[in-house]
Amino acid sequence: MSGKWLELLKEVAPSVMSVGVLRDRAIVAGTGQFGALQAVAASLKVELTPIGVRDAQEIERTITSFTRGSNRGLIVTASPSAFIHRNLIVTLAAKNRLAAVYPDRIFTTEGGLISYGTDYSDLYRRVAGYVDRILRGEKPTDLPVQYPTKYE
């Protein structure tokens, strides 16, 4: 999914050459998402810059510093810190005129440009099917792992 974020960003802002990737280095997902973005970046001729998301001061300082150049964009990876500071992140992206892609639609309802993420309503419906199967006697360890199939 991370690679798709970069593809979407290039579609809505083709002139973007440098992308700040807001991520939490303390969680494995942040490192994994950054690695997936790096795999796609070369083919799209985009340079990636990691931006820390520990606290509000770090977010403001690093985004402001990153925006000093031209042809910049922003990708916000999924993390608890990004969700906690989403209002600040969306405000800074708008203030600094950064085309930005977010991991969940809650960012766009607060003014963000575009999001691409898992459709959690569909995921929860599918979980109900698993619960039903377990209550009917199937062992949870025998059930296959399922990945999201619908995105929004």
Query: How many distinct helices?
Result: 7
Order of helices and strands: HEHEHEHHEHEH
Structural class, from helix and strand content?
A: alpha/beta
Q: Give the radius of gyration.
A: 17 Å
Uncertain ranges: none
- Write out the CATH superfamily name of the largest domain: Response regulator
Q: Look at the structure and give the CATH class of the largest domain.
A: Alpha Beta
**CATH domain topology of the largest domain:** Rossmann fold
| Level-2 CATH architecture of the largest domain | 3-Layer(aba) Sandwich
What proportion of the residues form beta strands (DSSP E)?
Answer: 15-25%
Report the average pLDDT across residues.
88
Number of strands: 5
Fraction in helix: 40-55%
What does the largest sheet look like? 5 strands, parallel
Number of domains: 2
Q: Note the gap between the termini.
A: 11 Å
Strand order of the largest sheet: 2-1-3-4-5
In short:
By secondary structure, the chain is of the alpha/beta class. The chain has helices at residues 2-12, 28-41, 56-66, 80-84, 86-95, 105-109, 120-135, and strands spanning 18-23, 47-52, 72-76, 99-102, 114-115. The radius of gyration is 17 Å and the shape is elongated.
Sequence-ordered SSE layout with sheet pairings:
Layout: H1 2-12, E1 18-23, H2 28-41, E2 47-52, H3 56-66, E3 72-76, H4 80-84, H5 86-95, E4 99-102, H6 105-109, E5 114-115, H7 120-135
Parallel strand pairs: 1-2, 1-3, 3-4, 4-5
Helix pairs in contact: 1-2, 3-5
Description:
The protein is of the alpha/beta class and 152 residues long. It folds into 2 domains: 2-115, Rossmann fold; 118-152, no CATH class. Helices cover 47% and strands 15% of the residues. The protein has helices at residues 2-12, 28-41, 56-66, 80-84, 86-95, 105-109, 120-135, and strands spanning 18-23, 47-52, 72-76, 99-102, 114-115. The protein starts with a helix and ends in a 17-residue tail after the last helix. The model has no long low-confidence stretch (mean pLDDT 88).
